[in-house]
Amino acid sequence: MSSTVSDPCFGINGAGIAYREFSCEYPQLEPFYFEFEKNYDPIPLLEWMRYHSMIPVYAVILYGVLITVGQYAMRNREPFNLRRLMAFWNLALSVFSWIGMFRTLPQLLHNLYHLSMRDNLCMDSRETIASYGSGSSGLWFLLFVLSKFPELIDTFFIVIHKKPLIFLHWYHHITVLLYCWHSYVTTSPLGIFFSVMNYSVHASMYGYYFLMAMKMRPKWFNPIIITIFQISQMVVGVSVTLAGFYYYKTDPTCGIQNENNTAAFVMYGSYLFLFLQFFFGRYFKKKGGKKQKSV
Length: 295
Hints:
Layout: E1 10-12, E2 18-20, H1 22-25, H2 35-38, H3 43-51, H4 55-73, H5 83-114, H6 117-121, H7 125-133, H8 135-146, H9 153-160, H10 167-185, H11 191-213, H12 224-250, H13 258-283
Antiparallel strand pairs: 1-2
Helix pairs in contact: 4-10, 5-8, 5-11, 8-10, 10-13, 11-12, 12-13
């Protein structure tokens, strides 16, 4: 990472954009960060992703085909029993999400403390890259985006175990992958909000799935807690996008991208509706009715 004599936290990324490495702002945290995190330059991969915009589209098409083929192949077969493999997978995603949360949440809190909500939501592309797109927070935001590809494997376990594959599950996986890629390549200022929320929810959610797969769930831990976490994420997501619309309409200097913000609003709005539907259908359906399976 480049630096100056006057400011050792100062760096320049591949696009010539100056930024301050987050961990350097807080010396008590810096020993817990690796050099490769501090030195992360987003520009090479960002440019590559911009020139390969069809990759997420191809991925979700292949995902849909494999779901259809997989369900057809399993129609007359007994379900597989890969609970331990599934448990390991969920544990890996939970650990990854906990680390991602601890790497991105401090950056978001730092930004909210030093900047107004308007300034956080109205950054232009260069400001976004300088604010959280470079260095350690930039690396973990990128990993958040790329994690949406391996998370598609969740559906593999549902199919081979012949569990009900509800619309919310596959719709969520498809739309979040497409949105995250678009959010990254357009350097949306909303990205830090959504990555922190998603990391935080997934840290608990996949940990819960691990305990369920290992049949180790504590009796006191009600699964309704996970669903409430998920719904809370959608409420915050809708609220942030509404705030984005307000600044976009009232402040001509606001750098928020209306296209990306609209996509986020539609995505989070539909998730909120579907998760509420799931919530009431599973936990408050009248006795005798068939409850829905967890997402």
